Amino acid sequence: MGNVQRVLVVDDDPTVSEVVAGYLERAGFAVDRAADGPGALAAARRHRPDLVVLDLMLPGMDGLRVCRTLRADGPVPVIMLTARSGEEDRILGLEVGADDYVTKPFSPRELVLRVASVLRRASRPPVPGPVLRAAGLELDPAARRARQDGRELSLTQREFDLLAHFLRHPGQVCGRELLMREVWGWEFGDLSTVTVHVRRLRSKIEEDPARPLLIQTVWGAGYRFDPPHLPPRDRMQDPPRPRTAES
């Protein structure tokens, strides 16, 4: 039992909690359950989880406060559940460091696959390699530290991995499907996850996130990291921009 990974499921809907716990247990995880914020923190203190499936809307203490408190005690991967599909809810979850979010209603099987994916990525040792530098950015993959013009950047795990991917592939167009596969390790999923993370990353490294200079949107194709002084031959020509804007 020492190698069994433990997941804490926090949801005030007993049906959701029971179904999710059942699927996770059948997949081989040990599962603890809580129905509110204080109960989640108490459960996490009793048995430190390897991952938390955390509902955003909870009685007593909302999921954002629970996530912040859990993270204050040490790193733990979090998958946020939200009953609303609005981008604001996703951004709130990502701001407090959630590794992923799932919008209700959801497939329990897909949630189990996402849990496994996040745990695999969290358990990987730091990737050795040279420090990545471009456009005043400096990323140390082994130390998981990022700076811009000497200033420490506060990046979530996904934001760090996304920026590292861009720095390793300057001038190349990266589609959302490719980024989901290479950064998230998923072959499926909600592509808006990528969109939200790109926006969050822009808000932290761009001088004007509304007019990004470093991470460009290539209309109909994806995103491209454009460090200054990149030779023109290394850039892919952008397709014509449509009349309707996309992010």
TrEMBL record:
Residues 225-247 are annotated as: Disordered. The keyword Transcription regulation applies. The keyword Kinase does not apply. Keywords: DNA-binding, Phosphoprotein, Transcription, Transcription regulation. Pfam families: Response_reg, Trans_reg_C. Residues 6-119 form the Response regulatory domain. InterPro entries: CheY-like_superfamily, OmpR/PhoB-type_DNA-bd, Sig_transdc_resp-reg_receiver, WalR-like, WH-like_DNA-bd_sf. Residues 129-227 form the OmpR/PhoB-type domain. The modification 4-aspartylphosphate is found at residue 55. Residues 129-227 bind DNA. Residues 231-247 have a biased composition (Basic and acidic residues). This is Response regulator transcription factor. It comes from Streptomyces cremeus.
